[in-house]
UniProtKB/TrEMBL annotation:
Cofactors named for this entry: FAD
Family note: Belongs to the FAD-binding monooxygenase family.
Domain of life of the source: Eukaryota
Species the sequence originates in: Exophiala mesophila (Black yeast-like fungus)
Name of the molecule in the record: FAD/NAD(P)-binding domain-containing protein
Keywords: NADP
Membrane-spanning intervals of the chain: none
A Pfam family recorded for this sequence: adh_short_C2
Length: 747
């Protein structure tokens, strides 16, 4: 797995132990968190180790983790109940196909009592600091007793982080949110005192929480305004198309009363163990069958897309407005498929309004949208999710510093998702590259615990002081995981459909990632991926959407980049303070064919958009006070235009002048402004070829052959190399220049 340090005596020799080989020496273990992973760890240690001491610190007043914390109306598991349970404690008495949160919490509390786990658990104790002490070979912890306010000190040989990823909820970043005078509630911190009956309620978000809250509130509120940012696929309770015939028969054969099991069915689960095991296996097959959709080896994703579209349309009563707002146009599997019993039906109710307009700000009496409309509400429910960045919630200091800081600067990585380089005797559950988005976390927790126990036994019997994975091993595992991602449907299709044509974004992002740039990639419409090419280089990447012609959206995009990645980083619309304004469109029409609207549209994006990006990037860089690099995007058309696209060269000549002017103005702030100019891309080939009677590709080849000195086409890699140079330190004395990568077409 990695490196380990054997015990040595003070004089450098090795002591002779007066004990039999393989004797298990005493080991002290601390687990943080008494949720699913923490409770399972208690049992696994009891079954596997001897001569050990184990303490679990839990910040909440009861065990259960996320199932103790999430109590909003309609909260339930989005996996089949009989798949969401430990293999060592099955529960034939689940009341319904997908159990409510209260029932899962009761299940966890019951097994905690039945297994007599409470003596090992300290409730209302929050770990606030952990540090590895090399001299003692132990972790030293500071723990706050939330009842008394006392700070408790403790130490251990091994530290197990079972805090999970669904416990650090966050408010949405909406201007004026705290100015609201009504009830403001987050789904993950639901107040028992919140009375929503007969009120006008806004629900923001249609993720896993939102699709459960809406149908739960709808019957009891006066009006429900559901704010939806992007469409999402809603799964029916069962997906027969993906299952074997025997599993379909077993699942369909269960006697249900709506979504609930009848008492007769529950009794059959109890009495017939063989049948119950087959039912459990059928639910597991249903969950795992979705993997086939991701890899799309058999066209299942397309088939499922058709089926879901038909089912969702029917549930929405074929309402055109709702269909446009809720049903995605991308293939099923490009985003996590969300079970939502009753959600679609609730949207058709007369007291529900689905709103896709962007929220501009919150005012004391309600919400203002991008249309300028004020929607007056009495309460706002934010179903806006959690911080799932993997960064620890408190300082965890290993050999190379605080893991919080390390993972803030680089892509989180862990060997087998549970062990971190330079963090001795430290394991975590649901870490980077864990299969947390696929299958039951109960199964994952059990398998990770088994793996950890193997290491603990080795430590006990082989006189080891510390064990940690080598950085090379961590990187190799991450590389394996990232290499697999492009095979999956969710990334593959989005790369094809939303990343620009002919590999341009792939090559640029890869080169910038390899230069240690962290990238905020911006698209005009909301993409649904984190760029896999950036991830594969080991750097962080965020993806957002912005209309570059909209001042507020560009400003918000830069603010998001600074908030999530630090000072203005390399972004594809914008290290070391670099901003690439790369937005641009072309409408290939001649002078006499181009309408005023088309001409204005091109100039609005290519000129006004670049101007707004230049301006907002300059504001941020001046504020940072560390200089910076702004790189504008134009075209060879800014030097030597081609016929058939009058608006395009006009806009690119304008960008050329704008770049020179901005360079003069920003030089006192040590900000370089340059332009990168590229030859005709293949995107123009088809339109120009059609006008000239040429086959696809011939117009492009003809342009290269007749105009390029080298008689070879420039590639995305060529442009990426130029941008990388302009973004790097070697270009410190270059500004106001418009550099060509054209193979010698214009001089």
């Amino acid at each position: 797995m990695g490196s380990y340090t054997p015990e040595q005596s003070l004089d450098g020799g090795f002591p002779i132990m007066e004990e039999p080989m393989g004797t298990a020496r005493h080991i002290k273990i601390i687990t943080i968190g008494a949720g699913v992973s923490g409770l399972n760890m208690i049992r696994r240690l009891r079954k596997s180790l001897i001569n050990y001491e184990h303490t679990v610190y839990e910040k909440n007043p009861e065990v259960g983790g996320t199932w103790f914390e999430n109590t909003y109306p309609g909260c339930q598991c989005d996996h089949p109940s009989h798949n969401y349970q430990f293999s060592w404690r099955t529960n034939p008495a689940w009341s319904q196909f997908s159990a409510p949160s209260s029932e899962i919490e009761a299940y966890l509390c019951d097994l905690c009592d039945a297994e007599n786990m409470r003596p090992e658990i300290k409730l209302s104790h929050q770990v606030s600091h952990a540090q590895w002490i090399e001299a003692s070979g132990k972790w030293e912890l500071e723990i706050l007793n939330l009842k008394t306010g006392e700070m408790v000190l403790d130490s251990c040989h091994f530290l197990l982080n079972a805090t999970g990823v669904l416990n650090n909820w966050k408010w949405p970043d909406i201007p004026g949110l705290n100015d609201f005078k009504g009830d403001l509630v987050h789904s993950a911190a639901w107040s028992k005192n919140f009375d929503y009956h007969n009120k006008r309620v806004a629900v923001i978000g249609n993720g896993s929480s939102g699709v459960q809250i809406v149908p739960a509130l709808q019957p009891d509120v006066a009006n429900l305004f559901h704010f939806v940012r992007s469409p999402t696929w809603i799964l029916p309770p069962q997906t027969d198309r993906l299952l074997t015939k025997s599993s379909v028969e077993i699942l369909r054969g269960a006697v249900m009363d709506g979504s609930k099991f009848t008492q007769q069915q529950i009794q059959r689960f109890r009495d017939d163990q063989n049948y119950y095991k087959s039912f459990i296996k059928a639910t597991e097959e249903q969950v795992n069958a979705l993997f086939k959709v991701l890899v799309d080896n058999e066209g299942l994703a397309k088939d499922l897309t058709v089926t879901l579209t038909e089912n969702m349309s029917a549930a929405l009563k074929h309402d055109p407005k709702l269909i446009k707002a809720i049903i995605p146009t991308f293939t099923a599997g490009c985003r996590r498929l969300t079970p939502g019993p009753g959600y679609l039906e609730s949207l058709t109710a007369s007291n529900v309004s689905v709103i896709t307009d962007k929220i501009i700000r919150v005012v004391p009496g309600g919400i203002i949208t991008s249309t300028g409309e004020l929607i007056e509400v009495d309460a706002i429910v934010c179903a806006t999710g959690f911080d799932v960045s993997f960064r620890p919630r408190f300082p965890i200091i290993g050999r190379n510093g605080n893991l919080q800081d390390i993972w803030a600067k680089q892509l989180p990585a862990a060997y087998m998702s549970c062990a971190v380089a330079h963090m001795p005797n430290y394991f975590l559950f649901m870490g980077p590259n864990s299969p947390a988005g696929h299958g039951s976390i109960m199964t994952i927790a059990e398998q990770v615990a088994r793996y950890i126990v193997v290491v603990l036994k080795k430590w006990q019997t082989e006189c080891i002081v510390s064990v940690a994975p080598k950085e090379a091993a961590v990187n190799e595992f991450a590389g394996f995981a990232h290499a697999f991602l492009p095979r999956t449907k969710d990334l593959l299709e989005k790369v094809k459909s939303e990343v620009e044509a002919k590999g341009r974004w792939k090559e640029w992002s890869t080169q910038w990632g390899e230069m240690d740039f962290e990238q905020a990639i911006v698209f005009p419409q909301k993409p649904l991926l984190i760029n896999p090419f950036v991830i594969a280089t080991g750097r962080r990447s965020i993806v957002s959407c912005a209309d570059v012609t909209n001042d507020e959206e560009v400003s918000a995009m830069i603010a998001k980049t600074v908030d999530q990645l630090g000072e203005l980083n390399l972004t594809s619309i914008g290290n070391g303070q670099v901003f690439v304004a790369n937005a641009g469109i072309v409408i290939p029409n001649s002078l006499v064919e181009t309408t005023t609207a088309q001409f204005t549209q091109v100039l609005n994006v290519n000129v006004v958009g670049v101007f707004i990006c230049y301006r907002e990037a300059a504001k941020q860089m001046i504020k940072q006070g560390k200089g910076g690099k702004i790189i504008g995007a134009s075209s060879l058309a800014g030097y030597r235009p081609s016929p058939g696209a009058i608006s395009y060269p006009t806009s690119k000549w304008a960008v050329r002048g704008m770049t020179q002017s901005a360079a003069m103005e920003l030089a006192p702030h040590d900000i370089n402004v340059n332009g990168k100019f590229i030859p005709m891309w293949e995107v123009l080939d088809e339109a120009i070829g059609k006008k000239q009677g040429l086959a696809k590709g011939e117009a492009f080849d003809k342009s290269v052959e007749t105009r390029s000195a080298f008689k070879r086409a420039s590639t995305p890699e060529d442009v990426a190399a130029l941008v990388s140079f302009l973004a790097g330190p070697g270009s410190r004395n270059i500004t106001g220049q418009s550099l060509l990568v054209d193979g010698g077409i214009a001089f």
